[in-house]
């Protein structure tokens, strides 16, 4: 039976949720304070990954924890005041650094990532934006043999779940990416990973498809949520919108909105930055590269070469700290010839991360008609359409295409 459904949150996860529900025959209204896709979903590296299923909280994290806490790693920067303020959250996060959890999370994420990649390809075709898709893999690069040896342990797990990759030596790297400077001794190409040349254009195309099929977009700030009779009211200042069901998919703001209904969501934020640079005169990059040891990703984009930083662990709305992206750009210049910075200031986004590094997809435990779809950490773009398909199946009370227990909100006491 068709329902009136409101989706709160216009990031890629919310947009895909709205589109999936709309295609399933529901009447859907998407609400966000900004134009859809202009918060965290705007600034990612554009990867549609199917092999990025190893979570951050793993036994290896514990080994390098002293370096992380002293800010001696390029991939992670920590605000000490934030850590102390959220110490119970961090201790619980670390409690998941067990091999059993790594394998549990990998199994669930691998299925959802492959489901999502197939769904993205179908949606990209339906939205008429095939030109955005790049099917050239994702190149992981290593400056030292020691760095590659450490990563090789992860590759064993990646291989065990069926993900395909190819290892390249120094001279082979020069053949597949001749524009790179000869500073890398090893590379791993994740063969099936895809990318898009503009995450913003992709989101716009999905929104346009949603609207062509009858979906409604409201650009207004949500100020309240309340259950009324057999449905839901979403308050947006002077306006109130009603629906049978409500989907909360507001990314880094989801925990705050859920707290209005007395839910305690165990969320923190992986903030990240990017900067666009003008390519120099070296041969163009064919694909995104990930310098594992230097902690940056560099991806050819419509707007230029996008260099993204590692993770910054701090308050969601703390003032920007550009030190990490400045270091990332400096390291990227060691790898590839680039000239001017194209952005006046670096962009910053906030990735929502739950204590077990898995998203929350399913029914809220204490309110009928309330659904959660958030917490996708740095995999929001990669996981969005698969998460939307699972959510739609749950709302329609039909069998999902995979086991959703790992993502259930009931795994926590909320």
Can you summarize this structure?
This protein has 414 residues and is an alpha+beta fold. It has helices at 12-23, 59-63, 65-69, 80-85, 87-95, 99-127, 145-160, 170-176, 199-212, 254-259, 323-335, 380-396; strands at residues 4-8, 27-32, 47-48, 76-78, 133-134, 138-142, 165-169, 186-190, 194-196, 216-219, 224-228, 231-236, 239-243, 245-248, 267-279, 289-291, 296-301, 304-308, 311-313, 338-341, 347-354, 360-363, 370-374.
What is the element layout, followed by pairings?
Blueprint: E1 4-8, H1 12-23, E2 27-32, E3 47-48, H2 59-63, H3 65-69, E4 76-78, H4 80-85, H5 87-95, H6 99-127, E5 133-134, E6 138-142, H7 145-160, E7 165-169, H8 170-176, E8 186-190, E9 194-196, H9 199-212, E10 216-219, E11 224-228, E12 231-236, E13 239-243, E14 245-248, H10 254-259, E15 267-279, E16 289-291, E17 296-301, E18 304-308, E19 311-313, H11 323-335, E20 338-341, E21 347-354, E22 360-363, E23 370-374, H12 380-396
Helix pairs in contact: 1-9, 1-12, 6-9, 6-12
């Amino acid at each position: 039976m068709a329902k009136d459904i409101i989706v709160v949150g216009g990031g890629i996860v919310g947009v895909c949720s709205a589109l999936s529900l709309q295609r399933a025959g529901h009447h859907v209204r998407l609400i966000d304070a900004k134009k859809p896709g202009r918060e965290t979903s705007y600034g990612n590296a554009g990867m549609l990954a199917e092999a990025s299923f190893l979570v951050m909280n793993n036994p290896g994290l514990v080994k390098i924890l002293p370096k992380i806490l002293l800010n001696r790693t390029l991939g992670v920067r920590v605000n000490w005041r934030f850590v102390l303020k959220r110490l119970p959250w961090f201790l619980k996060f670390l409690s998941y650094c067990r091999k059993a959890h790594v394998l549990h999370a990998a199994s669930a994420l691998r299925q959802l990532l492959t489901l999502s990649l197939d769904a993205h390809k179908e949606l990209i075709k339906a939205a008429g934006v095939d030109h955005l898709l790049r099917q050239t893999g994702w190149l992981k690069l290593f400056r030292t043999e020691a760095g590659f040896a450490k990563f090789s342990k992860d590759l064993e797990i990646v291989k065990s779940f069926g993900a395909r990759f190819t290892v390249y030596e120094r001279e082979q790297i020069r053949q597949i990416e001749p524009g790179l400077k000869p500073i890398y001794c090893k590379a791993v190409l994740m063969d099936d990973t895809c990318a898009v040349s503009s995450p913003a254009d992709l989101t716009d195309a999905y929104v346009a498809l949603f609207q062509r099929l009858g979906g409604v977009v409201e650009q207004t700030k949500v100020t309240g949520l309340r259950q009324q009779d057999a449905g839901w009211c979403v308050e947006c200042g002077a306006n109130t919108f009603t629906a049978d069901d409500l989907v909360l998919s507001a990314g880094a703001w989801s925990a705050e909105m859920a707290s209005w209904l007395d839910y305690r969501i165990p969320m923190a934020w992986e903030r990240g930055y990017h900067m666009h640079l003008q390519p120099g005169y070296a041969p163009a990059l064919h694909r995104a590269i990930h310098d594992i040891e230097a902690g940056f990703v560099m991806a050819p984009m419509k707007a230029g070469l996008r260099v993204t930083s590692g993770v910054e662990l701090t308050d969601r709305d703390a003032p920007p700290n550009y030190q990490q992206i400045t270091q990332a750009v400096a390291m990227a210049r060691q790898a590839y010839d680039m000239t001017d910075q194209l952005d006046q200031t670096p962009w910053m986004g906030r990735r929502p991360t739950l204590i077990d590094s898995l998203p929350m997809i399913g029914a809220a435990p204490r309110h009928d008609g309330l659904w959660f779809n958030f917490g996708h950490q740095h995999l929001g773009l990669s996981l969005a359409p698969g998460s939307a398909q699972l959510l739609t199946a749950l709302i329609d009370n039909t069998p999902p295409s995979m086991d959703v227990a790992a993502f259930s909100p009931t795994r926590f006491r909320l």
